[in-house]
Amino acid sequence: MSTPRLAPLVLLDVNETLLDLAGLDPLFTEAFGSAEWRAAWFQATLALAMKNTDEGQYQTFPLTGRQALAALVQGQGREVPRDFAEKLTAAMQTLPLHPDVPKGIQLLKEGGYRVGVLANNPAAVVTAQLRHAGILNSLDAVLSADDARQLKPGQRAYAYALRETGAEAAETWMVAAHVWDIRGAMTVGLRGAYLSRQSAWPQSEQPAPQISAATLPEAAQKLLHLAPVQS
Questions:
Q1: pTM of the predicted model as reported, rounded to 2 decimal places
Q2: What is 86-150 written as a DSSP string?
Q3: Lowest CB count within 10 Å: 2, 182, 197, 226, which one?
Q4: For residue 128, which phi and psi values (nearest 5 degrees)?
């Protein structure tokens, strides 16, 4: 008897793609006087994570975030409040969901796709985030690059997701609001769907993803038109 063929897979990034980091703004405003620190901190965290990956070093995403914040604050001649790390950890697990997300997931699943997440945060953090957001039970897989011992956009993170789900790279989509995440996924043969939550895909960044969309439902509709699941 032949093994039933698995449905193709859509992998979703979590922070900024599904969850709105603006939920951290009050915390950063209270600690540093401006919500602009939140965006600066997250960009510094991503830059440090990619630097570590390029250099073959691994450390968890939360630790990377703490180191990035310390460097950012010290560079401005300031100090991180004593209880800030604990408050940030708690706030990261209660981020609000972008309102378009449930409909986008629904469309993908109705279209015959398996839907999972691939995040840089450890699995326990991601699970807490998705449970709080109310979408944990809608997903077929919750995957963390932490278990691959290499953060996205390192190739091992995407390869790990394919192994864990039994998915074929050519049938798998990475959906993210980050250029670097889409680019990393495409280097190992995944298809890319970019959500322009902050900005459009840069024209200088080639190859471009197969899909660009402003919302997850729009991306889902384009994806299902471009690659319908064969019954």
A1: 0.94
A2: HHHHHHHTTPPBPTTHHHHHHHHHHTT-EEEEEESS-HHHHHHHHHHHT-GGG-SEEEEGGGGTS
A3: 2
A4: -65, -40
Q: Tell me the two tokens of residue 200.
A: 């459009």
Task: Indicate the DSSP class of residue 207.
Answer: S
Residue 78: the pLDDT is 84
If one counts every other C-beta atom within 10 angstroms of the C-beta of residue 202, the result is: 9
Cα gap 144→49, rounded to integer Å: 14
Burial class (CB in 10 A: 0-12, 13-18, 19+), 54: exposed
Residue 64 to residue 48: CA distance in whole angstroms:
7
Structure tokens given for 154: 């390192």
- The token pair that represents 169 in the structure block: 């790279």
Task: List C-alpha distances in Å: 197 to 12, 175, 179, 206, 221.
Answer: 14, 12, 11, 19, 17
Per residue, what are the HEC states of 163-201? HHHCCCHHHEEEEECCHHHHHHHHHCCCEEEEECCCCCC
Instruction: Supply φ then ψ for residue 168, to 5 degrees.
Output: -90, 135
The pLDDT, as a whole number, for residue 3 is 61
What's the pLDDT tens digit per position in 192-230?
999 999 899 999 999 999 999 999 999 999 999 999 998
- Are 158 and 126 in contact by the 8 Å Cβ rule? The answer is no
Q: Tokens 């309102």 belong to which residue?
A: 99
